[in-house]
Amino acid sequence: MFTPEGPSFRELAVQALSSVEHGYDLLAPKFDHTPFRTPEVILDATATVLAGLGPFGRGLDLCCGTGAGLDVLGRVCQERITGVDISAGMLEVAARAHPEADLLRGDVRALPLGAEYDLAVSFGAFGHFLPKERPGLYAQAYAVLRPGGRFAFPVVAPARPGTPGHLALLGFDAAMRIRNALWRPPFVMYYRGFGLADVRRELATAGFSVELYALEELGRRPDGSPRARLVVATK
Prior knowledge:
By secondary structure, this protein is α/β, with parallel strands linked by helices. The protein is built from eight helices and seven strands.
């Protein structure tokens, strides 16, 4: 839920009618007071799994935003950590919270980096990429990792059809598609269509081997399956 320190309805409306980059520039000062920030329970659960796979040397947060993922990298990486984001406003907030990190403004679909990282992470950003763009994103992640490096990100199990959560996602997705059909520039943010089977196949095509780890801190569904998993793709 939004806190009193979060953006007003008018501020959200202005953001939603902007481009992705400018929208996040506007939202940046209040972003950490919105439900869009990755919850601490997911960050902590991710750090726990990665700590068991590490330690790592250099770390990279793709679409770092205000720096939630940098907190995770700081716990599991022994060398420098770097964040990349397209929004200058989000990077300004991240710089204040993480003076120890190197922050770069750039498009993760065309990273200006070499194969020098041992771990790359990303949190909550994949909804900003159309399905046809994801293979290129995974190829970029592969390119910046050293041999044996890992690309990790959490995936929450989809809501059951007909549940309030599922209906809310359908409504949000429909609203964004109508907005983008009627207004320019587009604001790509689609939370549906990020299926685990597709992700695993696309990562394998990019050259990764893929493992899944249950994020047990988030519990399990009635059928016993995890409510969230950490995808760990190894170069």
